[in-house]
Write a structure and sequence with these properties.
167 residues, mainly alpha, globular
Length: 167
């Protein structure tokens, strides 16, 4: 069930992040770089999640500043997510595992700050900007934060299972 209040959103975001952070904490870089059957590595998964949190923060800042919000990103459409996410993963391959984990940590902290500093009505009242469509800011924050953290854990456990034979 989706969070309905600021406090629920903060608790869920922090809890899901903690679980993800704990899962990846002991994974060495060599294992993080190994790809699963789908060609995606643990490092790719973490880089992609950090990127999507940063996208939400950019959408929010652009909307707040009155700039055009490009969703998901300039030159890309929602129907092009497979190609877009592949580009995000490819762009992250030159970065080290520690750097990618630090990017996720920084993005998460910025997301928590946004939620913490937002009024309840800004998170769960009427949508603030056209880019939000039918979702509230809180719902967007949950989708790019807690939900992505949860899906990352599932994907990482699958990769670990493929490489070790047990999860």
């Amino acid at each position: 069930m989706a969070a309905q209040t600021k406090q629920e959103l903060l608790a869920l975001t922090k809890s899901e992040y903690r679980k993800l952070r704990d899962l990846i904490a002991g994974i060495p870089e060599t294992v993080a770089a190994e790809t699963g059957d789908d060609g995606i590595s643990i490092k790719d998964t973490i880089a992609q999640r950090a990127h999507w949190v940063e996208l939400l923060l950019k959408w929010y800042e652009d909307g707040k500043a009155g700039r055009v919000v490009h969703k998901p990103a300039a030159g890309h459409k929602w129907t092009d997510l497979k190609t877009y996410n592949a580009k995000v993963r490819k762009d992250s391959r030159s970065r080290g595992w520690d750097e990618v984990k630090a990017e996720l940590e920084a993005a998460h902290e910025r997301l928590v700050t946004l939620v913490t500093e937002s009024e309840e009505s800004a998170l769960y009242g009427k949508r603030l900007y056209d880019w939000m469509e039918d979702w509230t800011l809180g719902r967007w924050a949950e989708a790019t934060g807690a939900s992505h953290y949860r899906s990352a854990r599932k994907a990482i456990r699958q990769i670990l299972k493929e490489h070790s034979g047990a999860a």
